[in-house]
Amino acid sequence: MKKRNFFIWILIAVYIGWIFSNSFTIGEVSSSTSERVTYFLLRYVNKAGFSIDFSLFHHYVRKMAHFSEYALLGFLIVIAIRIAPLMKSRFLNFVLIMVAIPVTDELIQKYVPGRTSAFLDSFIDMAGILAGAFVSYILILILLDIFKKRSA
C-alpha cells in the first residue's frame, strides 16, 4: 500500500476512535446529550404538527445516532477499500470491519457506568454501515462511469 493511500485508513481510525470515545461516555452524560438533541428536534416535529411521546422519540433519536454514525463509517470504508484494501479480499476487509467495530462498540458500553450493551444496537450499527457503503458504492460507480465517458 502506498503511503499516500494510507491516509484514508488513518481518517477511518480517527473516526472509529471518536465512535469509541462516545461509548466510553458515562450513561448520565450520554443520556443528557441525547436528551438535548431530542428536545431540539422535538420542537420542529411539534411545529410540523406532529405529536410524539418524548421518551419514544428519545429512543428513536438514540437509535438514529447509532445508524448515522455507522453509515458514515460504511461510506468511508468502501472508499478506503477501493483505494487501498488492507487485505487481498475486499469483501473480507468489509465484512470484518462491519462486524468487529459494532461488536467492540457494544462491548465497551457494557463496562461503562450507566451504559448498557444492547445486541440489537450492533445490528443497527451494521445496517448503518451497509447503508453508507451502498451510497458510497453507487457514487463510485457513477463517478467511474462519468470518467469513462469523458476519456472515450
What topology emerges from the helices and strands here?
Layout: H1 3-23, H2 27-47, H3 54-83, H4 90-110, H5 119-151
Helix pairs in contact: 1-3, 1-4, 2-3, 3-4, 3-5, 4-5
- How many domains? 1
Based on secondary structure, the structural category is: mainly alpha
> Could you spell the SSE succession in H and E letters?
HHHHH
The portion of residues assigned to helices is over 70%
What does this structure look like?
With 152 residues, this protein is an all-alpha fold. It has one domain (3-27, 70-151). Helix content is 83%, strand content 0%. The chain has helices spanning 3-23, 27-47, 54-83, 90-110, 119-151. The radius of gyration is 18 Å and the shape is globular. The model has no long low-confidence stretch (mean pLDDT 92).
List keywords for this structure.
mainly alpha, 152 residues
A few lines on this structure:
By secondary structure, the protein is mostly helical. Helix content is 83%, strand content 0%.
